Amino acid sequence: MTSPGPSPTTSRRRVGIISASIGAGHDGAAAELSRRLTADGHTVDRWDLLDLLPARAGRAAGSLYHRLLEHAPWAYQRIYTGTERAGGAGPAARALLRTAQDRVLKALPADTGAVVSTYPGASHVLGRLRQAGRLTIPAVTYMTDFSVHPLWVARGIDLHLAVHEVPAAQARALGAAQVQVCGPVTDPRFRPPHAGERAAARERFGLLPGVRYALLVAGSWGVGPVRRVAAEIGASGAAVPVVVCGRNQALVRQFAADGVEHVHGWTDDMPHLMWACDVMVQNAGGLTSLEAFASGLPVASFRCIPGHGTANAAALDEAGVALWIRDAAGLPAALDDLMGGGAGLWQRTSGLSLSPADPALGPAAAIAGARLATGRPAVPAREPEPAAQGKPGAPVRRPAVRLAATFAAATTVWAGAVGTAVATGREAPVVLRALEHRIAPDTGRPALPAVVPAAEDLR
Q1: Residue with the larger pLDDT of the pair 143 and 376
Q2: CB 3.0 to 4.6 Å from 416: which of 74, 210, 368, 421, for a disulfide?
Q3: What's the rounded Cα separation, in Å, for the pair 246 and 265?
Q4: pLDDT tier at 395, thresholds 50, 70, 90
Q5: Mean of all residue pLDDT scores within the chain
Q6: Do 299 and 289 meet the contact criterion of CB atoms below 8 Å apart?
Q7: 379-405 burial, b if ≥16 CB within 10 A, otherwise e?
């Protein structure tokens, strides 16, 4: 397919947004961008990259990435580090993403004026289309993470939008051609409580006045050593844990068996839950952290998940918006300082300052801006990659082998810092061994426990 994509001369009032349902952060940013652009008079179309990949490969890879985080986080750290060292995804991931190019062009209405990615894989698809001259409208990446993995920076993208100057500087160092700091995109319900709203929120969730509560979150999948952290918070004496398990109902049941009083699954009432608590403890540094900043709730990073979790914790700490607690022995004092000391006051001020006071400086305005170049690729197109040639006498791939290769390549796109990883280069055997040990091949359920080395033992 050689469709040129939407014309650069058509209306700029229509915007396309491509995200990916890997966790909830990428979709959450896409939803809020869509709301803001719509409020400004734009027509917005949204797509999930997982649905634009052929043969349900995206959905299969997303499921595999989830299992990897749950059952072999040490292997995920190896993959994250490997793709970071290599400067991005390998040939398998690039080949898989090429299969989405025609589908993306076909999906974009003819009057689209700009297209936005909130997911690295989508950025690479759009960037390649811009380089080749097949996409002749601006392509924008909104980077949802505070730490910028090389996968976030795609050649051909016209503009990279960053939450803060720390990720903006990282993106520039990785070669992003144009970077703009525009602040986070969070639902307007996330704001500091007015007088009386905090007490009402506590009453809604059955939290007692005069007691200090730590909101413990672990993303929409509820991954990481959440039960261990809840126990450590409780044992610290600094606060009572209030746990949000996301969609992990098994974790909800485990906490109920542990006798933990304040436990929630997926909830749409996070704004009030944040108002009711005194500090938030997180392990991934995603959208929930940005929502806490907008709510004036101090944030601590503790026992973070590997890969993007620890990278985001370091970037948040560098930016001065979230304290990274690296040692469990320091947990009680850190929580005390965040809930009633100078650290909490500083972080509340820093977190609230992330969002620009002038909407004209926000991400929606940047996306809608008319100053982006159109009508030509953002950077000169590279020479076309040579097609793979079969070698005489090479073994013919059987269907099962092709399917395994597809899954491996697909997972490469999702399991890295921002969702890209499993079968890139030298790290593939590590992941396959991890999955072999931790997941029963016939049922997809966890197999018998295996001895798995800790992440620090593999560095």
Answers
A1: 143
A2: 421
A3: 5
A4: very low
A5: 78
A6: yes
A7: eeeeeeeeeeeeeeeeeeeeeeeeeee
